[in-house]
Amino acid sequence: MLDCMDDLRKISDLRLPPNWYPDARAIQRKIIFHAGPTNSGKTYHAIQRFLSAKSGIYCGPLKLLAHEIFQKSNDANVPCDLVTGEERVFANEDSRQAPHVACTIEMCSTNTPYEVAVIDEIQMIRDPARGWAWTRALLGLCAEEIHVCGEPAAIDLVTELMYTTGEEVEVRNYERLTPLTVLDYALESLDNLRPGDCIVCFSKNDIYSISRQIEARGLECAVIYGSLPPGTKLEQAKKFNDPDDPCKILVATDAIGMGLNLCIRRIIFNSIVKPTVNEKGEKEIDSITTSQALQIAGRAGRFGSSFKQGEVTTMHRDDLARLKEILSEPVPPVQAAGLHPTPEQIEMFAYHLPDATLSNLIDIFVSLSQVDGMYFVCNIDDFKFLADMIQHIPLNLRSRYVFCTAPLNRKEPFVCTTLLKFARQFSRNEPLTFDWLCRHTKWPLAAPKNIKELVHLEAVHDVFDLYLWLSYRFMDMFPDAVLVRDIQKKLDDIIQIGVCNITKLIRASQSVAAPGTAEVVSEDFPLSRTQRDARVVSDRHAAAPTEALSIAVEAAGLRRAKNLRSPQLSGRQEDMKSYGRGSLANRLLREGLLTQEMLRQLESEWQDQHRNGRYGFGSKRDDQHSSKATGKKRK
Ligand SMILES: Nc1ncnc2c1ncn2[C@@H]1O[C@H](COP(=O)(O)OP(=O)(O)OP(=O)(O)O)[C@@H](O)[C@H]1O
Ligand SMILES: [Mg+2]
């Protein structure tokens, strides 16, 4: 081990990332940074240039955004392909590549030359899990002009990075196209809802609870949350945007923060804290950041929508002052760009350490790696989780890597066990057929009757995604992509029916749940789909297993980067600490077992009972508990 230590150190030296992209270094690129607040036309102007170029690539953070540009480009008679983790759509019928492509950022090619490249939402370069993909695009895209769009907070870092490559950066600043006002009053009651309102929640259970209360008032609402399939999200958005549809209220998680074009007049933050998962994979509660709040608030009064100005407020009066504070704080500058090791580096590690498990290899790599202050190593826990899960299955290193980079949410047991079964059958060299998949998922499936069934259907949708993703990497072993895509579309329709009837499903779920049980399904974090999308697209060249090695590492671990974290992250940790200390309620909130909405409901029920002299359980012991609690509260 000691003999090869020097070699390992050399291999894991990540201090000169610009040198990883010789093709880009061989040309002189010009960087144009479109900077401004949300809804200021940054992407619009970059796309105008993309459309006028002979060839171009658009790199976006989400599948929905890539779809939007793909659509826009083809509508403007500029043939454009679409490339995401599970999908390739060619503009030309004979499957010849078009000169333009819209892709999710992890999929962009750093070998193909383009006249213009667009990198959207550049501030994501600081993202603990996905930042590497923006760094790779920025340093590695082979285009004469690179149009970068995003928050002004990223200007300095991009300029600094480009200083190391010797490339010029031109900054174009934009102003918001429509006014956005923070209201002086909170919504306080759902009775005050108006058409064009969007309530933003940070947990699925709050979504369920609020949509049910809205329906009880005789109003229809559309629902959008992270783990819904893209087709369902689009349908719900369409319904809400349609001026002739009676559905004029939207209940959504921050999944709407990037991507969808919605006709929202007013954003109402149901809460200003949100569950997150920390570096150890533990659930925590965290105040939303200024950047997140601005992104979400920026959905109101979108230019070109039916609302000429946007409004933003909170549901609860107590939160309004804090929201105003958050919105008025400056966004801290982006300080470091994410990185991941290259596939070759990990392969060389494996050569020197043939007996190490993949998970150990990654750990050793990350702990030995050296990075420059402008960079940090991204979080790689998802990869390690999968590596451990399939460790006992005999696979060669490259295939193992590909499996470990599969886009799945580790909180979905059905999807995880499916991956395990895929890997096992793959190791026996038995192709995964359509029939096998239908048997495994019990397809065909019926419309959901309650929330649990809806959640299961969402997981089956993810299993189909997983199959499609693998089919691009191991075509022979996953041969039935066409058929699977077909049933996935059908499943999307079934899920849509479920979501349209969501309040019925909630009622059905609650009638079978124990009396007083507020939770209808286990808590799911709103960003799970977004994070998964990150992994979904954490690949780039479908049929190139070596590339997949990088993907493995691309999800990335912050352990090394602890000291390089942005002030924003450290600030959030401080918030977490202060929030997390103390009472049982705070602990339950922190662990994600209780949502803000439930807590408020409990508080108000408890106060009502207290006021009326009813203590629910009636025993002396409980009375004592209650008075104790009161005493504590007063103190
Ligand atoms: N000059 C323009 N002419 C017509 N439409 C425009 C113009 N500028 C922007 N728009 C439209 O306004 C909307 C917002 O613009 P855009 O998406 O470019 O904003 P953005 O600054 O990228 O916002 P975000 O930060 O939320 O991504 C889009 O629907 C876009 O098509
Ligand atoms: Mg934009």
Automatic annotation (TrEMBL):
<keyword id="KW-0378">Hydrolase</keyword>
<feature type="domain" description="Helicase C-terminal">
    <location>
        <begin position="182"/>
        <end position="350"/>
    </location>
</feature>
<comment type="similarity">
    <text>Belongs to the helicase family.</text>
</comment>
<dbReference type="InterPro" id="IPR044774">
    <property type="entry name" value="Suv3_DEXQc"/>
</dbReference>
<keyword id="KW-0496">Mitochondrion</keyword>
<dbReference type="InterPro" id="IPR027417">
    <property type="entry name" value="P-loop_NTPase"/>
</dbReference>
<dbReference type="InterPro" id="IPR001650">
    <property type="entry name" value="Helicase_C-like"/>
</dbReference>
<feature type="region of interest" description="Disordered">
    <location>
        <begin position="605"/>
        <end position="635"/>
    </location>
</feature>
<dbReference type="InterPro" id="IPR055206">
    <property type="entry name" value="DEXQc_SUV3"/>
</dbReference>
<dbReference type="InterPro" id="IPR050699">
    <property type="entry name" value="RNA-DNA_Helicase"/>
</dbReference>
<keyword id="KW-0809">Transit peptide</keyword>
<dbReference type="InterPro" id="IPR041082">
    <property type="entry name" value="Suv3_C_1"/>
</dbReference>
<dbReference type="GO" id="GO:0005524">
    <property type="term" value="F:ATP binding"/>
</dbReference>
<dbReference type="Pfam" id="PF12513">
    <property type="entry name" value="SUV3_C"/>
</dbReference>
<dbReference type="InterPro" id="IPR022192">
    <property type="entry name" value="SUV3_C"/>
</dbReference>
<dbReference type="GO" id="GO:0016787">
    <property type="term" value="F:hydrolase activity"/>
</dbReference>
<keyword id="KW-0347">Helicase</keyword>
<dbReference type="GO" id="GO:0003724">
    <property type="term" value="F:RNA helicase activity"/>
</dbReference>
<dbReference type="Pfam" id="PF00271">
    <property type="entry name" value="Helicase_C"/>
</dbReference>
<dbReference type="GO" id="GO:0045025">
    <property type="term" value="C:mitochondrial degradosome"/>
</dbReference>
<dbReference type="GO" id="GO:0000965">
    <property type="term" value="P:mitochondrial RNA 3'-end processing"/>
</dbReference>
<keyword id="KW-0547">Nucleotide-binding</keyword>
<keyword id="KW-0067">ATP-binding</keyword>
<protein>
    <recommendedName>
        <fullName>ATP-dependent RNA helicase SUPV3L1, mitochondrial</fullName>
        <ecNumber>3.6.4.13</ecNumber>
    </recommendedName>
</protein>
<dbReference type="Pfam" id="PF22527">
    <property type="entry name" value="DEXQc_Suv3"/>
</dbReference>
<dbReference type="Pfam" id="PF18147">
    <property type="entry name" value="Suv3_C_1"/>
</dbReference>
